[in-house]
Amino acid sequence: MPVPGSRLPFDICKSVLIPMTILIADHAGFCFGVQRSLEMAAKALAERHELQCLGQLIHNRQVVAELEAKGLRVVSSMEEVPVGGAAMVRAHGAGPATYQAAERRRITLIDATCPFVQRAQRAAAAMAEEGYQVLVVGERDHPEARGIVEHTGGRATVVEDPVEVDGLRLTDRVGIVAQTTQSAEKLAEVISRVRPRAADVRVADTICDATSQRQAAALNIARQVDVMLVIGGRHSANTTRLAEICSAGGTPTHHIESADEIQPQWLAGAARVGVTGGASTPVSAIEGTVRRIEELTAA
Predict the structure, then answer these.
(1) For 62-80, what is the mean pLDDT?
(2) 39, 68, 144, 244: which is the annotated catalytic residue?
(3) Residue 19 confidence (pLDDT)
(4) Under a CB-based contact definition with an 8 Å cutoff, are residues 4 and 13 in contact?
(5) Which residue in 24, 25, 247, 281 could disulfide with 253, CB within 3.0 to 4.6 Å?
């Protein structure tokens, strides 16, 4: 039966007589930054009915498709936005060049950058301005990490794996920031590899509090179940991290985008199934996953 381990207002958390227990992790579903960006998009679309967004507003294919149907068109550059028009900056943020291009083309920007991402951007920019060699703990190809680097004038280095630090030529003054969805463990390992090699190390712990809480809650559930389902976009960094954390604890873990992907064999012999969702995962996707588990195990 589903166990009410979440603050989310699920009707599905009520007891249902099915032959297994479903545990839903706390903090599953939209985070503050994602919810804020979606509310901003809804308000802007109600006023304009058509709007460009510089990249996907959030990393969830289903939600992005719903927004496109309402008039939010994804573009890859400011040049695709009509002069004098309007565009959204997605939740992952953007570099200074985006704002400069908007001003040059007289484009109204609706800035949906998550405040926690903005904090990381400001911290990295300040370190670079003060002459620190800036390391960004994150994924090189992720838009948030790219935006942070751009706010340093392109002078920062993204570190995906802590062992990469060993191959870097470090100066005496090193500043470290993190992509907001990184794990505290990875940030700590990067710091531990830098400290013996630099006289002055400045650290800005820019990991989002909600990310840390979500990761801890997911791991707590994963330790109690036979199989774990993590719901979220394939390109969602925080969802991928959740799946990695649950799997690293030894629990068979499956990263899915929707309930349709669940394979019956994953649930075979399982008495307890855990469910969590990334920061861009809507409540409806979590509810759908629980319903699908119930359907597959009711027979």
Answers:
(1) 93
(2) 144
(3) 59
(4) yes
(5) 247
- On the question of a common fold for 32-114 and 116-203, the answer reads no
Residues 246, 247, 251, 254: what is their CA dihedral angle, to the nearest 10 degrees?
Answer: 90
| Model confidence band, residue 298 (pLDDT cutoffs 50, 70, 90) | confident
Cα(239)–Cα(232) distance, integer angstroms: 6
Beta bridge partners of 87: 52, 109
Count how many residues are written for the chain: 299
Q: What are phi and psi of 9, to 5 degrees?
A: -80, 65
- For residue 166, the tally of other CB atoms under 10 A from its CB is 9
Q: Quote the tokens at residue 211.
A: 């990310």
Distance CA 91, CA 71 (A): 18
| Residue 189 among the catalytic residues | no
Crossing angle (nearest 10°) for helices 209-222 and 237-248: 30
Angle at 206 between CA 201 and CA 212, to 5 degrees: 125
Q: In the chain, what is the greatest distance between 2 CA atoms, to the nearest angstrom?
A: 64
- Residue 30 neighbours by CB under 8 Å, 6+ apart: 38, 279, 280, 281, 282, 283
CATH of 32-114, one of 3.90.550.10, 3.40.50.1820, 3.40.50.11270, 3.40.50.2000: 3.40.50.11270
pTM given for the model: 0.84
